Amino acid sequence: MHFNYKQNNTNFKTEVIAGITTFLTTMYIIVVNPAILNTTGMPFSAVLTATVLVSAFTSLMMGIYANNPIVLAPGMGTNAFFAFTVVAGMGVSWEKALGAVFWSGIIFILLSIFNIRTYILRAIPHQIRYGVAAGIGLFISLIGFKNAGFVVPNAATIISRGPLNEITITFLAGLLITSILIARKVKGALILGIIFTTVLAIPIGRLWGDASAVNFGNTVLISWKGFFALPDFSLLFKLDLMGSLKLSLLPVIFTFLFTDMFDSISTFMGIAEAGNLKDPSGDPRNIRQSMIVDSIGTAISGLFGTSPATSYIESATGIEEGGRTGMVAIVAGLLFLPFMFISPLLSMVPSIATAPALVLVGIFMIKPVLKIEWESFDNAIPAFLSIILIPLTFSITQGIIWAFLSWTFIKLFTGKKEDITLTLIIIDIFTILALIVE
Fold it and tell me: Which of 122, 73, 62, 120 shows the shortest CA–CA distance to 283?
C-alpha cells in the first residue's frame, strides 16, 4: 500500500485508533439519516442499509484511491433538503428525488474528472480558507454542545445555555475527562472519552432523570435493542432517472450539486489546515482524487437509495488523534459494514457521548485564525464572515458564499482588482444563483 507512515509521521496503530475515533463520531448518521428520510415514505431499514453501503464504499475509496483520512457518508442538511423541501415541500416523489441526486453526482464526476473543481478550489483566497477552517471548527463544537443539550434555542436570545440536569452534567463530566486525557497526550483520548461518557450515561432514565428531550421521546438514554437485524436492499436502483430530468427539477439538481460541492471543498480545506495535509503548492493533499471519490459518492447515493454522500467534517476527530493517511478512512469504512447486520448496537452510544469529542475538535480547527491578516481589513472581513456565519447559519455553504461575495466587492471597491480572478467571478455568479433558487 502507499500510506508512507514514516513520511507522514504516523504508524499503523495510530491510524487504526484514528479510524475508530472518526467512525464513533460519524456513526450517528446510520440511525439519523434513515429517521429523516423515513418521513418521505422510504422504508427505514432500507435507508439504513443504503446509508451503511454508501458510507463504507466511499470511505474505502477515499482511503485506497485518494489516501486521505476523510470519511464520507450521507450529509446532514442535504438529507433534510431531500425530505422536507423536495419531497414534502415540492411534492416530488422520493424516486424522482433519488434521480436528481444521481444526476447531480454525474455532473459532479465530470467537474472532478476535468479538474474544474480543483480550479474552483485554487480560486479560493488563502485568507478565506483560514476562515472557513476556523468556522468549521466552531460549527463542529456547536453541534457537540447542541447534541448534549448544553446549548438550546431561546426565543428571547436566539440560543442560550440549557438546564443543568443529568444530561448536561454527564456531558460536562465527559468533556472534563476527555480534556484531561488530551492535555496529558493519552493515545486514543477521544475514544476513551466516548466510552467513559457512554458508561456514565447508563443510569439516566433508570436511576434518575429523563432522557426523552434528547432521545426521541425515550425516557431511558441507553437501552439494549437487540444485536442482529437483517439488511434491507429494497431501495437499490429504485430511482426514477428519466422523471428526474424534468425542467422543474433542474433547480433541485443544481442545489444538490452546489451544496455538496462547496460543503466538500470547504471540508477538504478545513481538514487540510487542521492536519497540515497539504501539497507543495499549499492545496489540500490529493485534492483531485478526493473530489472524484466525493462525486462518485453522490452518484451512487441515488443508486443505492439515500440522499447525497459528502466528506464529513467529523473526520477532524481522527486527524486530532494523529491520523494522517488513507488507512484512517479504510478502518472507518470497514467499521460501517457490520452495522448492516448489528445496527441495534448503535443505540448503545448516545449523542451526548460523542459530544465532548466534537466540542474539543473546535480547539484544534480554530488554529488557522492566527494566519489571517487581521490588520488588513479587505482580507480580514471576508475571513471573519466565514468564521461567524458557518456556525450561526448552521451551514458551511452559507459561510463560504458570503465570504466569496464580500471578498469580491471589497476588493473591487478598494482598488485591488488583481485579487479577483475570473474563476472567482464565475463562482460568485453561481453563488448568487444558489441564493435565488434556495
Answer: 122
